[in-house]
């Protein structure tokens, strides 16, 4: 038997059954319904079935007590408070009698099923949810009734109310503007306000709250345009709804103050009191001055000891003797004209300082080099 359940999760563009001849009956009723709905290209195919010994078009098949199941639920929308219990019911009817069940995959609340069958026409099932969780806010419960002809379903939308919780409140971060990011979770959707320095924070062009609301979740930023140190301080977010109020604070630091505005500058002290820095500076100056004086004194002594020279000569020490080297100048004759030109040529006389001076006498002659 070919069942519709084989194809229920497939995205069929076309299902070719031209060469198949079926047995007329409730088992092929779903194919007839698909032809009527123009599903999977079956409406373009000449399908037939055997009715006794004859073949008839599948479109013409007429079968009683064979149709899609009908389904009803006790609620379309259910609103409860977190932690409450609730029971919902689903009734499936039709011929053949359908199987009925709730799909609870992904449901966080504790659940129990109770099935009741009223033959031959009704199959009902009760679903009890215990200690409803806020995680199930917005969950869609679906009841499904199935038989050989097909499937029908009905849904219930769950609304779970709970007090607000501030999931995130972060320190300021620099973006296009400076953002203090926050996330608040609660239903009914909470109202938000900001407290700064014990008062409601005024909002405007330079400080404003920007947010998006997703059912029971609020995400946004407290945005600052060009904040300064005047904006530093504790910021408190207050979230409230009909079930409660919660708060959370964060310190916002934007810039360092150029000076401590709470303290007046210290006046200078009179008298001879000096700070440690001043004393240290004076000590360094005195030390440098003393060092310079000592250095100058040493240089003076060295110059006096080693730097003296005779006006007319130099002392030379050799072999334990000191000799005075003095230059003598003699005239030199120039040219053949016999003119005497007073041009001095130096000759050096070495005189031992360790012997007494020679007695005066005629000056020794020296050759004159022309």
UniProtKB/TrEMBL annotation:
The chain crosses the membrane at residues 280-303. InterPro entries: Cell_Adh-Cytoskel_Orgn, Ig-like_dom, Ig-like_dom_sf, Ig-like_fold, Ig_I-set, Ig_sub, Immunoglobulin_dom, LRR_dom_sf. GO terms for biological process: cell surface receptor protein tyrosine kinase signaling pathway; homophilic cell adhesion via plasma membrane adhesion molecules. GO terms for cellular component: plasma membrane. GO terms for molecular function: ATP binding; transmembrane receptor protein tyrosine kinase activity. Residues 69-161 form the Ig-like domain. Keywords: Disulfide bond, Immunoglobulin domain, Membrane, Signal, Transmembrane, Transmembrane helix. This is Ig-like domain-containing protein.
